[in-house]
């Protein structure tokens, strides 16, 4: 997921695959808890995850090599944007720095994410202030002049609406947008009329307090970590996520600004990644690190067959260094090859076989690079993604699991922000395309934004309950995308933030609780033991084995039913072994997704039953048979002991 500060990164050449100049951690293995021996076991053990978004995945809007230390004398950058009238994609120019108080911006628009036939909306201009100590109340006054758009045909259009003076308050280090309404320009009707053209203008800063600070080096890790408005990540934040019940954190990481001209990664950046990894693993959580905004619509790593050697070398260069640095960490640390990788046309879905093949090649390069890096990497669990991390069925069908020298160590990842009504079809597609082939799956990103104009908390909780519980029923672990949002009161928090990273208090604790509770699933083996004894018509048994797996009920002298559980999510075509004792019978009812009864079966002894092909839920009812009981004229006393053992046998 991209921040609101997307920007087009500069194209850079491929890095040489390095065998030296790498930074190796001491021979220390972190975390002591055991890790399951299969990829599916690790997915299940993660349970539910959270993304530390917009922290280590931030990048400067114009590449700043660490060899060229950038001081605050160059604290301003300009960025132009384009969007359609009815939002269909977000596009941004490169972001040149001001020279003194003047910036000449030229945007040659070769490709756009916005719909080709979408109605033109606006060109926008935003100025970025790189001062880390901005008060939040400073006003920037600037003048735009010489604003023109030259179409691909050569026609020049004057953008007179842009040519005036603007005054904007700096918020989160950026100004509000100055815009020109393209609907008023008859020669620009759709995105097709914009593509291939060139936007040109001059910006002059008129009145703004120039920072005199020279003590901050913007090439340091703290600068990049806070670049998009979030604070430096703390141990307290990670502990708060752990204490809530999350068992895994995905740490998106971008390397773009941290690679020297010889291809080596800045040691300061690797050390900061290491600090955050330790925060997570020291809490006995799983940690996933990836290659993030180096890919995607604004990235420089591409899934293009025509240039696959260059991109393969670049990806291998990054992972040869990162894998070596972390090679002594145990299997609580997982590597994810790349985030949402796209081709040069930035197509998110239906990109074609060549794009899918290129993504498969890069996945193989990632796996091979890590495996040959030594240490624990020979058997580390690795995460490989579909093209664009897409969960579209055609894209998942084009995905090929890499060959691997380690057995059962690969996990597939997709991202999906579908609405509540599309959850069932999402997981049906994942099941048919990936799970049915025996490929373990995580959903590396999902979420539902906060609507600041109306209260949508209830809808978000319902969404989480359905999304995560359906994933759990399919043995899939989900990771909420948290971008940090805006640090204000909860009713004003936008985007996907659910925790305040400054205070480590939850903006939306109910959403976090819903994720943790809904992620509970039937373990491969559950054993339940209790004594039934009831004299006052209250619940006589309680089986708590997951969010949907509650076993409770009542009985009296006129009923033979002792208790029954709530609807238990259950996969069709799965077998369940049931063993029990205590003079009772068990009746198993199977229901379809609409809760229509399919079948009812009674068992008086240990048994195995298989769910019907249409089954989505089952209930289990416990009934009296020959167990001893005592009665008087007013009330029935029932005493019995029982044990139930359930083993879920995935077929």
Describe this structure in words.
The chain starts with 38 loop residues before the first helix and ends with a strand. Helix 6 runs parallel beside helix 7 and helix 10 packs parallel to helix 11. The radius of gyration is 28 Å and the shape is globular. The chain is built from 11 helices and 29 strands. The strands form 5 sheets. It has an 8-stranded parallel barrel with strand order 1-11-12-13-14-15-16-17, surrounded by 4 helices. Strand 14, helix 8 and strand 15 form a beta-alpha-beta unit.
Please describe the topology of this protein.
Elements: H1 39-46, E1 49-52, E2 76-84, E3 91-92, E4 102-108, E5 120-129, E6 139-150, E7 156-158, E8 165-169, E9 178-181, H2 191-194, E10 198-207, H3 221-225, H4 235-244, E11 248-251, H5 267-281, E12 286-289, H6 308-325, E13 333-336, H7 353-371, E14 382-390, H8 393-397, E15 410-415, H9 423-433, E16 441-446, H10 457-473, E17 477-482, H11 509-518, E18 525-534, E19 543-544, E20 550-552, E21 561-565, E22 568-569, E23 575-581, E24 584-591, E25 597-603, E26 607-610, E27 617-624, E28 629-631, E29 636-649
Largest sheet descriptor = 8 strands, parallel, barrel
Beta-strand content: 25-35%
CA-CA gap between termini: 34 Å
Describe the strand arrangement of the main beta sheet, using strand numbers: 1-11-12-13-14-15-16-17
Question: What labels would you give this structure?
Answer:
11 helices; alpha+beta; 651 residues; single chain; 7-stranded antiparallel β-sheet
């Amino acid at each position: 997921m991209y921040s609101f500060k997307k920007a087009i990164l500069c194209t850079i050449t491929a890095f040489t695959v390095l065998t030296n100049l790498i930074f190796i951690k001491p021979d220390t293995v972190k975390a002591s808890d055991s890790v399951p021996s299969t990829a599916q076991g690790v997915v299940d053990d993660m349970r539910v995850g959270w993304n530390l978004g917009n922290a280590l995945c931030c990048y400067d809007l114009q590449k700043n090599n660490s060899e060229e230390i950038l001081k605050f004398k160059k604290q301003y950058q300009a960025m132009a944007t384009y969007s359609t009238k009815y939002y269909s994609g977000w596009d941004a120019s490169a972001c040149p720095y001001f020279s003194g108080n003047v910036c000449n911006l030229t945007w040659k628009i070769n490709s756009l994410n916005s719909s080709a036939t979408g109605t033109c909306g606006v060109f926008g201009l935003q100025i970025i202030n790189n001062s880390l100590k901005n008060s939040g109340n400073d006003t920037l006054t600037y003048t735009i002049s010489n604003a023109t758009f030259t179409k691909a045909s050569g026609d020049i259009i004057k953008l007179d609406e842009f040519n005036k003076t603007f005054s904007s308050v700096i918020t989160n280090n950026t100004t509000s947008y100055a815009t020109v309404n393209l609907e008023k320009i008859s020669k620009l009707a759709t995105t097709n009329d914009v593509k291939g053209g060139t936007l040109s203008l001059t910006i002059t800063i008129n009145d703004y307090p120039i920072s005199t600070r020279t003590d901050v080096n913007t090439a340091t890790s703290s600068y990049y970590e806070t670049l998009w408005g979030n604070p430096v990540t703390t141990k307290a934040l990670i502990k708060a996520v752990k204490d809530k019940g999350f068992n895994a954190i995905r740490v998106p990481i971008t390397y773009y600004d941290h690679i020297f001209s010889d291809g080596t990664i800045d040691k300061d950046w690797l050390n900061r990644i290491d600090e955050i990894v330790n925060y997570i693993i020291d809490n006995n959580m799983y940690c996933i690190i990836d290659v993030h905004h180096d890919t995607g619509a604004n990235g420089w790593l591409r899934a293009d067959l025509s240039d696959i050697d260059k991109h393969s070398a670049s990806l291998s260069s990054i992972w040869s260094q990162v894998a070596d640095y972390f090679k002594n960490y145990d299997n609580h640390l997982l590597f994810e090859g790349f985030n949402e990788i796209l081709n040069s046309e930035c197509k998110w879905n239906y990109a074609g076989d060549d794009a899918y093949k290129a993504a498969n090649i890069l996945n193989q390069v990632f796996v091979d690079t890590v495996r040959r890096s030594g240490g624990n990497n020979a058997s580390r669990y690795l995460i490989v993604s579909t093209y664009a991390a897409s969960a579209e069925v055609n894209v998942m069908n084009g995905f090929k699991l890499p060959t691997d020298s380690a057995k059962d160590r690969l996990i597939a990842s997709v991202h999906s922000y579908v609405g509540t009504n599309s959850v069932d079809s999402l997981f049906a597609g994942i099941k048919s395309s990936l799970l049915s082939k025996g490929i373990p799956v995580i959903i590396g990103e999902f979420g539902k934004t906060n609507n600041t104009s109306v209260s949508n908390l209830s809808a978000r909780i319902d969404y989480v309950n359905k999304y995560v519980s359906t994933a759990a029923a399919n043995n899939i672990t989900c990771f909420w995308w948290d971008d940090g949002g805006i640090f204000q009161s909860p009713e004003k928090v936008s985007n996907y933030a659910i925790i305040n990273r400054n205070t480590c208090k939850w903006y939306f604790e109910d959403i976090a609780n819903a994720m943790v509770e809904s992620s509970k699933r039937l373990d491969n083996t559950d054993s339940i033991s209790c004594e039934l004894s009831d004299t006052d018509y209250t619940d006589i048994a309680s089986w708590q084995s997951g969010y949907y797996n509650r076993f409770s009920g009542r009985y009296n002298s006129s009923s033979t039913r002792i208790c029954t559980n709530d609807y238990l999510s259950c996969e069709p075509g799965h077998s369940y072994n049931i063993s029990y004792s205590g003079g009772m019978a068990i009746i198993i009812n199977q229901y379809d997704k609409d809760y229509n009864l399919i079948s009812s079966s009674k068992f008086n002894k240990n048994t195995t039953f298989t769910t019907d092909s249409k089954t989505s839920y089952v209930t289990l009812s416990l009934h009296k048979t020959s167990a001893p009981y005592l009665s008087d004229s007013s009330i029935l006393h029932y005493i019995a002991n029982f044990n139930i053992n359930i083993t879920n046998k995935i077929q």
